[in-house]
């Protein structure tokens, strides 16, 4: 509990004690026309005494209401509380009843509700802060053999930093020396530690558990993973959902409407009674109008709906699922189509050379040419060819490298023309190629302008991919689709293994966008299509889909920027979990809306007919708000979402 909350709690306790003592004292020492009263203290003094706890508990509400009137924005909950309680006090003065307890109780319970709401929001924020407490305080930079502790903002690219056991990795980089185990739970939600060695890429925000690591930084702090994550979390609450926008618009119309209704309730019935020759009963109808005002306060909706979304975003963050705003959380709940990129999303993206089919050239020589031709590329297939070659590549032998998008690469190796790519590349060179009976990615090779054979490379399916597809279908997803740049038969084999409904192969990045647009056009407008990818070539599709989901903290920056949801690890099961979390959150939002409106309108009708008194009004306002806030906090829990 912070200082402000502690101060409010003290005010509540003091006001409650004083109100209780005055209530008892009034019964004993009040006007002599009351039962059991000694008649020692006269009526005017009771007003002064009762105003002490009223001012203690309500001075800030009165102050805010006055400021709202001055600024021309009077219609808020502070105005409603001020008018209702001051009105109740005026009625008690006119009637000389000495019953100021209701006015104090309304203000007291309202403040209790506000304190509870403040604590609940604070708890949600603390949960998110604790989950995402990954911002490093310093970095140990090695300079001239000495270690200097500096702010992470002062570290440049290619600086050497030292991370000791128990410290957070401050900036993304590559391990130069040492091996260790990392705690990545704050980033990925995965409790199992990760082993790292020399040459491994590590990201900021992870905690070093065992050995000392010497890391060469690859990014500045502002571009590192930890900065991007913190930026996502901090900005997520600014993207409002349709439900939140509706509640904001509703409150702006609803509040002045109920104030006008309360005025009508206070004036029209008495005037009608005068016209028919009866007593107007002004006090009775004004009391009903004031009760009507207290009941009408929209606190339960205005507070609980944003809190539900905030808690939902926090619960998702705990599981390593970063959602960029409550608008995306709401859209995610309506997901009926999930479209996957294949490589790195449903498969590991770790390619291995399975076999080499050659014509007259030696197998090792064909691999040598392929590895040198692909030497400048960082594509997973290029890496697999270089790994299969297994020797150091002499880049001085390579010249005239040209990468042809969706086709392959041409280059000169030892002044010999080399081409490595798919069938389209061979066709563009006018060369006849041989098809391969094996499944996998086929890299056709041309050496010295003649077809020389092909290399079969295959990717491994992630162990959780099949279960991920099953969970999506159980979660109510109507159709799963896979898009790949590989041959359609390769994609179909993977799709059949996993249970994916449709597959489209031989797609360039632009073709993937076109296919997603086609799928969006053919679906119902109320249904949402999500695209899941991880590579830089997926960025255009991620941006075009209704919801873009980027896989993995180590996915490309472009994919993470374009995505609406970022999964901090590469486990595709998290997609179904994200959908379930969003649906639970939206269900809670609708529960709160229905509950609050039903109770409000029922009590408003009872208040208008004089059946509900100020105590019922307190429940309709504060009681409903507390119940709604308690319900909203449930969105923080992610149990039964996996």
Describe the structure.
This protein is α+β, with helices and mostly antiparallel strands and about 650 residues long. The protein has four domains: about 1-130, no CATH class; about 140-170 and about 170-220, Calcium-transporting ATPase, cytoplasmic transduction domain A (Distorted Sandwich), CATH 2.70.150; about 325-340 and about 465-580, HAD superfamily/HAD-like (Rossmann fold); about 350-460, Calcium-transporting ATPase, cytoplasmic domain N, CATH 3.40.1110.10. Helices cover about 50% and strands about 20% of the residues. The strands form four sheets. A seven-stranded mixed β-sheet has the order 10-22-21-20-11-18-19, sandwiched between helices. The chain has a six-stranded antiparallel β-sheet with strand order 2-1-3-9-4-7, with no helix packed on it. α17 (about 540-545) links the parallel β20 and β21 (about 545-550). α1 packs antiparallel against α2 (about 45-70) and α10 (about 325-330) packs across α19. The mean pLDDT is about 85.
């Amino acid at each position: 509990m912070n200082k402000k909350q502690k101060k409010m709690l003290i005010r509540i306790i003091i006001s409650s004690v004083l109100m209780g003592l005055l209530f008892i004292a009034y019964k004993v020492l009040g006007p002599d026309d009351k039962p059991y009263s000694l008649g020692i203290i006269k009526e005017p003094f009771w007003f002064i005494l009762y105003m002490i706890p009223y001012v203690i508990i309500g001075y800030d509400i009165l102050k805010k209401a006055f400021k709202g009137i001055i600024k021309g924005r009077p219609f808020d909950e502070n105005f409603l509380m001020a008018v209702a309680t001051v009105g109740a006090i005026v009625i008690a003065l006119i009637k000389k009843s000495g019953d100021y307890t209701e006015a104090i109780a309304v203000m007291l319970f309202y403040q209790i509700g506000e304190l509870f709401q403040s604590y609940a929001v604070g708890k949600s924020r603390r949960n998110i802060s604790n989950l995402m407490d990954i911002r490093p305080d310093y970095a140990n930079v090695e300079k001239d053999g000495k270690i200097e502790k500096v702010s992470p903002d002062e570290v440049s690219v290619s600086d050497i930093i030292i991370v000791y056991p128990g410290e957070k990795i401050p900036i993304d980089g590559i391990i130069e020396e040492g091996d260790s185990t990392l705690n990545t739970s704050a980033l990925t939600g995965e409790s199992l530690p990760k082993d790292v060695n020399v040459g491994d890429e590590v990201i900021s925000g992870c905690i070093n558990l065992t050995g000392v690591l010497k890391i060469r930084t690859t990014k500045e702090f502002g571009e590192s993973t930890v900065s991007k994550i913190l930026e996502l979390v901090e900005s997520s609450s600014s993207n409002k959902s349709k439900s939140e926008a509706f509640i904001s618009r509703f409150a702006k119309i609803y509040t002045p409407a109920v104030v006008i209704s309360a005025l009508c309730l206070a004036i029209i019935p008495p005037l009608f009674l005068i016209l028919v020759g009866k007593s107007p009963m002004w006090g009775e109808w004004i009391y009903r109008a004031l009760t009507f005002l207290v009941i009408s306060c929209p606190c339960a909706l205005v507070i609980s709906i944003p809190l539900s979304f905030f808690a939902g975003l926090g619960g998702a963050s705990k599981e390593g699922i970063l959602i960029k705003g409550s608008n995306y959380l709401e859209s995610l709940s309506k997901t009926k189509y999930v479209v996957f990129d294949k490589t790195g999303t449903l498969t590991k993206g770790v390619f291995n050379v399975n076999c080499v089919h050659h014509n007259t050239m030696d197998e090792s020589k064909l691999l040598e040419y392929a590895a040198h031709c692909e030497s400048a590329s960082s594509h997973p297939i290029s890496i697999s060819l270089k790994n299969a070659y297994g020797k150091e590549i002499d880049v001085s032998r390579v010249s005239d490298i040209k990468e042809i998008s969706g086709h392959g690469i041409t280059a000169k190796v030892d002044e010999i023309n080399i081409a490595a790519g798919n069938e389209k590349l061979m066709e563009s060179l006018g060369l006849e190629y041989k098809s391969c009976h094996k499944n996998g990615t086929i890299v056709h090779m041309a050496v010295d302008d003649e077809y020389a054979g092909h290399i079969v490379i295959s990717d491994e399916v992630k162990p959780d991919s099949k279960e991920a597809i099953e969970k999506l279908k159980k979660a109510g997803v109507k159709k799963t689709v896979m898009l790949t740049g590989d041959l359609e038969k390769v994609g179909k084999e993977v799709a059949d293994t996993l249970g994916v409904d449709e597959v489209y192969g031989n797609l360039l990045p632009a073709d993937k966008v076109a296919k997603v647009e086609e799928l969006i056009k053919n679906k119902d407008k109320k249904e949402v299509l999500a695209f899941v990818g991880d590579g830089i070539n997926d960025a255009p599709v991620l941006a075009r889909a209704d919801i873009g989901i980027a896989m993995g903290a180590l996915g490309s920056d472009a994919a993470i920027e374009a995505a609406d949801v970022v999964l901090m690890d590469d486990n595709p099961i998290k997609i179904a979990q994200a959908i379930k979390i969003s649906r639970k959150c939206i269900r809670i939002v609708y529960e709160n809306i229905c509950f609050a409106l039903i109770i409000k309108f029922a009590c408003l009708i009872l208040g208008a007919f004089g059946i509900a008194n100020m105590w019922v009004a307190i429940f309709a306002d504060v009681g409903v708000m507390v119940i709604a806030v308690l319900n909203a906090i449930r969105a923080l829990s992610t149990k039964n979402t996996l």
